[in-house]
Amino acid sequence: MRSWQGAGIWYGADYNPEQWPESTWVEDVALMRRAGVNLVSVGIFSWALLEPAPGTFDFGWLDRALDVLHEGQINVDLATATASPPPWLAHRYPETLPRRADGAVLWPGGRQAYCPSSPVFRERSLALVEAVARRYAEHPAVVMWHVSNELGCHNVHCYCDVSAAAFRRWLGERYGDLDTLNDAWGTAFWSQRYHDWDEINPPRTAPTFANPTQQLDFLRFSSDEQRAQLRAERELLKRLAPQPVTTNFMIGTGIKYLDYHSWASDVDLVANDHYLTAADPEAHVGLALAADHTRGVAGGDPWLLMEHSTSAVNWQPRNVAKTPGQMRRNSLAHVARGADGVLFFQWRASRAGAEKFHSALVPHAGPETKVFREVCRLGADLKAIAEVRGSRVDADVAILVDYEAWWGAELDSHPSVDVTYADQLTALHGALWRAGVTADVVHPSADLSGYKLVLVPTLYLVRDAHADALRAYVEGGGTALVTYFSGIVDENDHIRLGGYPGAFRELLGIRTEEFFPLREGERVTLDDGSTADVWTEWLHPAGAQVLASYADGPLPGVPALTRHAVRTGAAWYVGTRLDHPATDRLVARLLADSGARPPVDAPTGVEVVRRRAGERSWLFAINHTDTDARLAVTGVELLGGGRCDGELVVPAGEVAVVRELSERREIVVGKKELDRVNLTVEGDR
Predict the structure, then answer these.
(1) Which of 412, 416, 410, 409 is nearest to 518 (CA)?
(2) Does the structural domain 10-171+224-387 have CATH classification 3.90.1170.50?
(3) Longest dimension (CA), the chain
């Protein structure tokens, strides 16, 4: 991997100089320097300007823009500009346009109006990448390359004939022959057996439920097609240019159809875009989940926040502005959870276009605004904490997430439409957040040996190797929790026979004979006082200890929560959807059972995360409440510049970052200082 780290923490935004008169560019650079900006992404949606006609390139405006930025000491993350093709591509090659499952064509006029399997699009886009890379590979402003933009955001699935042919090729490589495919797809059901590859199509709109494994494979194929574009551009850039290569993922923004765990090896740094859900009053908890998941995709390494917003976005039903201090808390929460760069969309709010009401670092009202004052303050904050760059986040807990399990869990014709994949992921992570405990959100193939607690939410689809890895973790002394609708099918979406939860049945010491999903709005109570909804199941203990059973509902007296001692570890199972208070209590029991703890004790609503590099550590404390918080911390507070001896006060709505001093380090530092004094005295003699 090529190094992407700068001298400090990267800070900046998407910059679109082509939207503004060149007389504005010098003013922009002056404001960037005033704000502490040191990195901007340039050229993301500029294909139509860079190549106004096939094979005809116009780089003059980009030459001048990059020179102005370099003169102002602003670094550039230069885009390949392939994110949205120019109108001439669809006009000359209409076969490049994507189609929905019902056959409807998606036309130009927005963005990403291309079929990801189109060989014409691939050829024309790579010709642009080559031209841009050859021209700017040695430009002194360019420090990294930005492949496309949010690949698959609007065109992840295409059902056209070009995609159908590509899907058949993908299936041929996956299965080798039709007998193997027919077995994997279970085509003995509903007379679906295929005798010729040309009989196979994407799961287009059908009279009733499509074959579930066909759907699952099409989702895999679609993620791989988007990844193929990333890999094709990356390989060209690596051949022509020395800078590191990335693209912006969309982890935690509702995008589920791209398997980012498999994409991580294709970039030199993991970068992510994240936007708050404005309707959620606790959206900062969702932000923490997205950041923890991004860090998991990055393998625990620092990552780059490529986009978030200074205030409101433009694309939600109600685009709520951020309150004073909220943008600062959001940004530093990302840094706390592993980001070594904080970038936004965009630098200057657009005058025209679909995103003209999206907030920016420089709003329509100009720099004399709340937003720009907060932008400048954040720039100073990031400079003050630059020493955390390169450190990693401490986490005692892992949460297992698999995109394939997500896709499988939410296919049609399942026991309950109310069972969704992200539900228990969000609930369990939220309970950890409220307990002050940091979690890595990782793929089931990750090394689990360093964690005290592993949570397995709704892992509906699981491979044998991943089930075996969880068993080995528990047998080695770990504590794990598995939730309902986990371990049900193999990688082909075939039921694991013999009783649920299939792959985890023996590990958990239980056997479920039948699901009893609840009606809409129906609730049940447990004999420990907990309340639950959505899901119950007829569960029999087979070695597990029963911790709670249903007090009412369709299954009174049937176990709902169990714990199974396995050698020196323990495997817990929850067979229903607990409400938030009960989930908090369950997580508290799991933390006590496993020994996982927060970095420091903090009131609920005060986010505490520790980053570490060797013996050095930094504690981030983000107060999301309206009350001052006191924490037992010793060290130097970097944002305020003061020392805290055993107590840190974090005012309401504020953030503190402390370079910690443990008792052992205090002794070492004191001894070094004493040695220095003694050496000085000896020298004076």
Answers:
(1) 416
(2) no
(3) 99
Torsion of CA 629, 283, 599, 667, to 10 degrees: -70
For residues 340 and 304, what is the distance between their CA atoms, to the nearest angstrom? Answer: 6
Burial 497-513 (b: 16+ CB within 10 A, else e): eeebbbbbbbbbbbbbe
Residues of the chain with CATH 3.40.50.880: 397-594
Following CA atoms 641, 642, 646, 648 in sequence, which dihedral angle do they give, to the nearest 10 degrees?
-70
Q: Got the DSSP string for 399-453? A: EE--HHHHHHHTSSS-S-TT--HHHHHHHHHHHHHHHT--EEEE-TTS--TT-SE
- Amino acid at residue number 16: N
Name the architecture of domain 606-666: Sandwich (2.60)
d(CA 188, CA 339): 49
pTM of the model: 0.95
pLDDT surpassing 60 at residue 678 = no
CATH number of the 397-594 domain = 3.40.50.880
| Region(s) of the chain under CATH 3.20.20.80 | 10-171+224-387
Asked whether 433 and 285 are in contact (CB, 8 A), the reply is yes
Q: Report pLDDT for 673.
A: 42
Best CA proximity match to 513, nearest among 558, 556, 551: 558
C-beta separation of 339 from 302 below 8 A: yes
Q: Summarize pLDDT for 132-174 with one digit per residue, the tens.
A: 999 999 999 999 999 999 999 999 999 999 999 999 999 999 9
What residues are annotated to the active site? 150, 307
